[in-house]
């Protein structure tokens, strides 16, 4: 990790799959980013970042943990409808892109695009949305052996869904 890469984030927390980069603005969380293991921890500079670190650690220890973080409003009206549907998926369950699309009267591909545009992964658990025939993509990545799908597999296994491999 270069110093310039580290500077992109207010803080960085280690995660079982690598790390999470945290960005905040004006007293709210503005973005969470999945980072590969080469990123070192970066201390929380303030109470909000400390709260975010605390809640992320709680989730890594207990997949049933429920986040309660102040989020910066993001996304289009459509994206927010998708994100609300995703946020309602309980831990240990998945829905397919098609099932979410039917709930909100949209198309599976549009749901997938909104999933990939999620600013708050884990808080809005887009990893709980899969393809009809398997894992599907994740965070706009679909390389079967890539970092992001590895994160999705870990998250699903963490929540008790081992059929996707971990």
UniProtKB/TrEMBL annotation:
| Keywords (A to Z) from UniProt | DNA damage
Would the keyword DNA damage turn up in this protein's UniProt record? yes
- The organism's place on the tree of life at top rank: Bacteria
Residue ranges occupied by any Methylated-DNA-[protein]-cysteine S-methyltransferase DNA binding domain in the UniProt entry: 77-160
Alphabetized SUPFAM superfamilies for the sequence:
Methylated DNA-protein cysteine methyltransferase domain, Methylated DNA-protein cysteine methyltransferase, C-terminal domain
Q: Output the InterPro entries linked to this UniProt entry.
A: MethylDNA_cys_MeTrfase_DNA-bd, MethylDNA_cys_MeTrfase_DNAb, MGMT_N_sf, WH-like_DNA-bd_sf
Name-wise, this protein is Methylated-DNA--[protein]-cysteine S-methyltransferase
């Amino acid at each position: 990790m270069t110093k310039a890469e580290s500077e992109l984030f207010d803080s960085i927390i280690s995660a079982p799959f690598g790390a999470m980069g945290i960005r905040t603005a004006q007293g709210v969380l503005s973005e969470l980013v999945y980072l590969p293991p080469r990123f070192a921890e970066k201390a929380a500079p303030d109470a909000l970042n400390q709260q975010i670190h605390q809640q992320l650690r709680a989730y890594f220890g207990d997949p049933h943990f429920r986040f309660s973080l102040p989020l910066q409003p993001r996304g289009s009206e459509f994206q927010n409808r998708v994100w609300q549907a995703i946020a309602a998926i309980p831990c240990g369950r998945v829905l397919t892109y098609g099932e979410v699309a039917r709930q909100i009267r949209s198309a599976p591909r549009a749901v997938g695009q909104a999933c990939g545009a999620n600013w708050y992964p884990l808080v809005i658990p887009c990893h709980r949305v899969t393809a009809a025939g398997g894992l599907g993509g994740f965070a706009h990545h679909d390389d079967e052996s890539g970092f992001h799908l590895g994160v999705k597999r870990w998250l699903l296994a963490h929540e008790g869904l081992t059929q996707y491999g971990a």
